[in-house]
Design goal:
13 helices, mainly alpha, globular
Length: 212
């Protein structure tokens, strides 16, 4: 048993070094993506060119969406929606996000209505964007359930602040204040990590509440 201890120790050391190396490489990769997002896009384009797969195309579209390149993201999401993946719910939700950012309410409605019965749709911000699109097209009554769905305590902070702004713009300041007061009350009970995670939404809530 003693004879094998150095061997076991060597194996443990090698595995530890491999794990640490992977962690360092992952951290470096994430930092590079933040500091130089163009490199991330170029790398993903190279991967797609090397292997034109569904996942590679979606990965590129997701990166373009986060970068704010909405039209190119839309193009890749649409290309991804083919064959066995023609009704992929994740891609359609992402496509709705991109259309919302472009102000394309008709396209938001069209894509949303093809997946609105799916449970994942109602759990996503896409359901809120669908409500906004319906409201923008004069169908406020149909939009209300989607507004109510997103207005849930201890969740959906960016969307709830946007919903408050929407109510304010429509002249319903009482409802806007109610939502903002709830958001800010929840923010006051958050721990350090949660406060950091939601700091942008909370700052927007404070700013909007101060203007009402």
């Amino acid at each position: 048993m003693i004879i094998f201890l150095p061997v076991v120790g060597s194996i443990v050391y090698i595995l530890t070094q491999m794990i640490q190396k992977r962690e360092v490489e992952q951290i470096q990769k994430e930092l590079t993506s933040v500091i130089n997002p163009t490199k991330k896009i170029n790398d993903l384009k190279a991967q797609l060119e090397f292997a034109d797969t569904f996942q590679n195309r979606v990965n590129l579209a997701d990166a373009l969406l986060e970068q704010g390149n909405y039209q190119e993201a839309v193009d890749h999401y649409r290309d991804a929606l083919s064959g066995n993946f023609s009704n992929d719910v994740y891609v359609k939700i992402q496509l709705i996000r991109a259309f919302h950012q472009q102000g394309e309410s008709q396209w938001v409605i069209q894509e949303a209505e093809s997946i609105k019965v799916h449970p994942d749709f109602m759990k996503s911000a896409a359901s809120f964007y669908y409500g906004l699109a319906l409201d923008a097209n004069g169908n406020s009554e149909a939009a209300q359930p989607y507004f109510d769905n997103i207005d849930r305590r201890y969740s959906n902070y960016p969307e709830r602040v946007k919903l408050a702004a929407h109510y304010s713009d429509k002249g319903n300041k009482e409802k806007a204040i109610e939502i903002l007061d709830e958001v800010l009350a929840e923010g006051a009970t958050m721990g350090k990590d949660s406060s950091k995670l939601h700091r942008t939404a909370l700052a927007e809530a404070r700013k909007l509440r101060g203007s009402l």
